[in-house]
Amino acid sequence: MHFVWKERQSHSGTLGATLSLLEQGEPAPLVGADWVHWTYHTYTEMSAPNTATWNKEEKRAERDVWTLRLEEGDIYRTDSVNPEATFQSAKSSFDKFDDGDITYRDVFFKLSEYEERYTSAGAWQTDTASSSDFSRYRPIEIWTRKAGSSEYTHYGTVTVNPSNGALNFKSDDGTVTRNGVNELNRIPLPENTAGLRYEHQSDFAKTNLDAYTLQVANPTDNMKALAKAYADGTGAGYPLEDAHADVFIGDAAVSSIDMASTLIKSIAQKWEKLSVWNSFEIGRYLGYKEDVSQFDDDSTNGLQTMTVRTRFGESNNISDLFGYKEWLPNGEPYIICCPQGQRLTRLQSTCTAMGDLRTVRPIRLRSPSPRSSLRTGRVPGRRCSK
Length: 386
What we know:
Elements: E1 2-8, E2 14-15, H1 18-23, E3 28-29, E4 40-47, E5 53-55, E6 60-62, E7 66-78, H2 87-90, E8 95-96, E9 102-114, E10 116-118, E11 124-126, E12 140-146, E13 153-160, E14 167-171, E15 177-179, E16 187-202, E17 206-217, H3 221-231, E18 238-249, E19 252-258, E20 270-271, E21 276-282, E22 294-298, E23 303-307, E24 310-316, E25 334-338, E26 360-364, E27 375-378
Parallel strand pairs: 2-20, 25-26
Antiparallel strand pairs: 1-4, 3-17, 4-17, 5-6, 7-8, 7-16, 7-18, 9-16, 9-17, 10-11, 12-13, 12-16, 13-14, 14-15, 18-19, 21-24, 22-23, 25-27
């Protein structure tokens, strides 16, 4: 079995704040608000193209080494998505982005190898569980292409730790290293990387290679013009990316695979402007059953303590992982008002999602309120008058 498949990172199918950033001349990481650190996942499953022989002494299959070459393809755009169409069937109707409009910031991988066995029935059977013989896992070679160039250059090598299967990266010049490559420890790519290619050799029966890339939309003249058009409603702006794989035995190509079965709707992601959601809750939340105020009396000292549980915060459609916190609005202060003569002795707050609580302060009322012992709220630009 040979196939190449690609999926978008955003479950919602949207790319948060992309238009707002590009309109202001800022690079825009192509991620949504799903706390996922990649734009596209390219998945390749390749069965060995050659026949194995059974080593009775070592009880394992042996075959010649074969090579998988996986290349991230051209990046296209469309203003409409047919939910039933495949990428390959509609690709000719798409427009390509200019080289350099979208570049790659980083990548990480997952690699699994599968052994096969010769059964007593006289047939080959591929294991359902991946091999834990990591000493046989071969490296992943990374090649990059800069925007404006057609040449790929070797960037570095991902090796597999033979004891635990961890992926470790080192660039050819030794300036970039990553041990234990994963979603939170990604491989940074050279600036202005517009093309990516991976090569991996194997002598297993089947190889699964997953590549997760983070892309950035750059504020080129073309991108800023597109962002303005999309923001004005003259286009929806769905970016799409191709991928292609070749399998070699030696220098001879034996298979060539594209994304024939990938549906457009599984990779299309809509551009968005910045959106912010405010939330305020009082009483019942986070496992607390009380939805009314709780009072504790201290008759000895003539004090009454009232506890009101609140939660408030701000979330948005752009991840702060990429340093865009300044795009969050400052907001107005949350103000807690107490009757005259009473004071707030303790305040505990928890921010939700990516919220940033700017100001929380207790204030005194100018006159007592006979109707309420506590008011909470968000008061724009003034103190409470009741």
